[in-house]
Amino acid sequence: MNPLETRGPARILLWTALALALLLYGFPFLHLLLTSFKTPLEAIAVPPNVLPSVWTLENYVSALTRQGVDAALINSVVTALISTALSLVFAVPAAYAITRFRTPSGRVFILAALVTRMVPTIAVGAPLVEVMRNLGLTDTSFGLALAHTTISLPLSIWLMASFFEAVPDELSEAAQVDGCSRLQAMTRVVLPVVSGGLAVTAIFAFLASWNEFLFSLLLTSVRAQTTPVVIANFQSQFGLDWGGMTALAAVYSVPVIILTLFLQRHIVAGLTMGAVKG
Amino acid sequence: MPATSSTAAGAASAAPAAAGKAPGIGRRERGDRRFALLLMLPAALFLAAFVLWPLARFVYDSFFEISPFAGSARTFVGFDNYVAAFTSEAFTSASVRTLVYTLFVVAMEFVLGLAVALLFTALGRRSTVFRTLFMYPLMIAPVVAGLLWRFLLIDNFGIVNELLFRAGLLASPDQIQWLSNPNLALFSVAIPDIWLTTSFITLVLFAGLQNIPGEVIEAARIDGARYPRILLSIIIPLLRPVIAVALIVRGIDAARAFDVILIQTDGGPQGSTTTLTLLIYRTMTRFGEPGLASAMGTVYLLAMLAVSIVAILLIWRPGAGER
Prior knowledge:
The structure holds 2 protein chains of 2 kinds. Chain A is an all-alpha fold. Chain A has 14 helices and no strands. In chain A, helix 4 crosses helix 10 (195-210). Chain B is mostly helical. In chain B, helix 10 (190-210) packs across helix 12, helix 11 crosses helix 12 and helix 14 (276-285) runs antiparallel to helix 15. The model of chain B is unreliable at 1-23 and 318-323 (pLDDT under 50). The chains are: A mainly alpha, B mainly alpha. At the A-B interface, helix 1, helix 4, helix 5, helix 6 and helix 7 of A face helix 1, helix 2, helix 3, helix 5 and helix 6 of B.
């Protein structure tokens, strides 16, 4: 038992504090969900109500049938899937090389990847507009996925490197003695061992793309626009449709939250890994 | 895959011997190196093409005066854009705002994050379910968080003021002008950012707390030290490396905040929430001055790189944690 754990009657006080903290922390999103079930008029009523007086799906119907919303949701899924695939394809071999062979070039590379993570997004996004134009990828999901990969790749390399780090070198050495090539030792022996880490990395890469806004704003206009930009446009394009906005925001967030709750153990591992190991 | 693993593990003891006997260790090592380079090459090429090259273009553009229309003339102007940036009030005040915003976010997240991490530790294993619940904002898009908080804080029908009013803390529901008071707005727009990612600090610090050796705390307690003293003289110093990493990661993200602010105030009122990214974005797209925007962005980029390199050297270096 951790010596910082408290015993005795003080625990009741602590549980109360936790319940209060959670209520405060959860209330904003709860309010968003409750508002999404109000009528559009009640959503902006003065003074606001906490609970809907009439429960209705009106906001969901109006938000989801709005022009461009269905396309934006599909674009978000497609872009995030492409970007996740790209991140894994690039990150897995690189992270394996860095941890398995520990060459000086590997050390330089992982530090460079770390520095990439600290670059202001706008300094990459602005010139990418022209790069994408030259490649003929303006306003395409693939072009946007490439841009999102600049964010998720360094993160994926770091995550995968920490998962590979946990695998003893003897495993791949033994595989090679048994007649595997270097490549087979990686793909057939080590990779199956880190499949959990692969899943975590995939989730983080997916989320990085799913929630990204600035690149989407700069690089897409009509065809490939993703949902965050459409949500942001709700205010200007349609007046202040708070009801519809809360409904679309709920549609966009709830699947991700459910996914998180299912995979929480792995995600916590992924989030804390790099930081705690130092 | 248990079959493969056990075979591989069984052969593991034989591996070093076989490697030691081989005459061409040098050759094997060279092969290893070539293989490692080959594996890193795709990722390296990707980052070179889609990060380094754009960055180089960005810095290069900062030395030109560029018309915003595609394909029109550009004139080399040397450091003129930098002079213009540093002499513009907009740039200096946006830099100050970015700094204030970042420090505020990081400080709040640290205090709240540590408090909750200590609470979870005090409650022990039973708190697992709540730790999960606490994590959900991390998955929400910043745009959604920004809009949500704008909705909560909006002057005439925001629920926050309404609840404060009903609780008797405010004299009227529009007493606090969260997002329209220029002196307050920079701190109000930070709330969604804090709400979204305090959990990250909590998770990292919680993991760090589990690694503190129990004997140290027991010993301090036997010596009669009370909780605040244990916290300040033992827990925080021991957690220093973990705290540093968490705060740097969050600080860098906070300094780049864009969507959260854009959605809530669009940089207003009276420019009071225009941070560097917003200013650069606007200089580029709305004011049509890509050259000036690139110069501002380059200064911003260099500052961020300097901070992160110093941070990496100070903190990530093994053994730098203890003094």
